[in-house]
Amino acid sequence: MENSGNSGNAGNNGNTGSVERRTLGRSGIEVSGLGFGCWAIGGEWARPDGMPLGWGKVDDEESVRAIRRALDLGVTFFDTADAYGTGHSERVLARGLGKRRADVVVATKWGNVIDEERRLAVGSDDSPAYARQALTASLRRLDTDYIDLYQLHISDAAPDRAAQLRDTCEEFVREGLIRAYAWSTDDPERAAVFAQGPHCAAVQHRLNVLQDAPEMLAFCEESELASINRSPLAMGLLTGRRAAGQPLEAGDIRSAPPAWLPGFSQGEGADPEWLRTVESLRSVLTSNGRTLAQGALAWLWARSPRTVPIPGFRSVAQAEENAGALAQGPLSAGQLIEIDGILGR
What we know:
This protein is of the alpha/beta class. Helix content is about 35%, strand content about 15%. It has a single domain, classed as TIM Barrel. A hairpin with a 6-residue loop joins strand 1 (about 20-25) and strand 2 (about 30).
């Protein structure tokens, strides 16, 4: 398995910050150190060619119960997108939050064009006019009059177009429609375009113990932005529940993984080499009674005081396990070094 180079624990100065609460960069918006990602609860959706983009079938009532359980356990940050289930995730999140909307920080995303009736993602649109159209639709589905963190979902948008969208987001802030904004991208140079805006608060990017991102963490530190961690459990590989050759249901994106989703093979489930790497980390990650998933989250908190992981969930049990990581706190500096040694970085 490829790693992303020598991490050198960049961005981690030994002060992991509060795990219970963290701040979204320059915005001053405070969130629980653990957020919940709402991709999976959107249910099934796809591209027009049939490629799945969701995580398979879901039970909406169980999703609502899981959201409410997370709230009871102190989770105050929920990340969704208009594309997830082509609007369904936003609607389910609104149901789960109910009258507690004012107690939480809601992040959503825009940029993908969706066909809600057919549950299809049919393209993308990086125009300022579409940003406003998408925001209006998200506000309606989320049953709210403001979004706390509005995020561009086109990871490879052209920088000049992104600069226009940054300025559009500043307009949304002035109008009271959003409190702050961010870009979901793995490219620090693109993230820097949004970071020039005074109300840019974060970058959402891929980060987990198998796929480090030292350059992005260094950028977040330099730019005083939060690092919102997409795929903190490596699309389920770091939960310990996947086995080599274990089939995935047809509506699960991991059953027909796109190029940007490593660790899974077409029709063959989880990659055995990735699973062997996970096993090599098990003893460190499960220290102090943690589950494997809780250890993976603890690595993220130890990695930088700016990280806010957003693991996905589809059940009350998953919500409880993920939230349980908060009580354990971050791994130690020694454990980070041990993990780097095992991974050879």
